[in-house]
Amino acid sequence: MSDPQTLPPMSQRLVDFAGPEMPPAADERAYAAHIHIVITAWNLAIVPNNSKITHRFDQALLAAPIHLRRVFEARLAELVERKKKHFADDTRVVADARLVRNGEKLTLETKSYDFAVHGEKGL
Fold this sequence. Notes:
Layout: H1 10-18, H2 28-46, H3 52-62, H4 66-86, E1 92-102, E2 105-114, H5 115-118
Antiparallel strand pairs: 1-2
Helix pairs in contact: 1-2, 2-4
């Protein structure tokens, strides 16, 4: 279970988790695409395989062309492993996220909750 008092804001945690592969915020389209992959991997690393989240994800993934699906699955597997290895103490899931542009600055705003405490009822 996470202690919200000791963890950084979820938006910062996701940027840290994304690591050096994160595109610069100036490229808003690439940044948005990457952050969505990062959020998906973060959540998949926390929720059980038979959850509503994984079921919806599996359904969406089946709609993708097979060559894209394989690339996406491989990238997600890398990120899920990174989450479990380096961020295991954080059991918050991202319930909502959006990018907000204010002039030249792009900010990630998130809503999250502790999955270990609340389970899927927040979804």
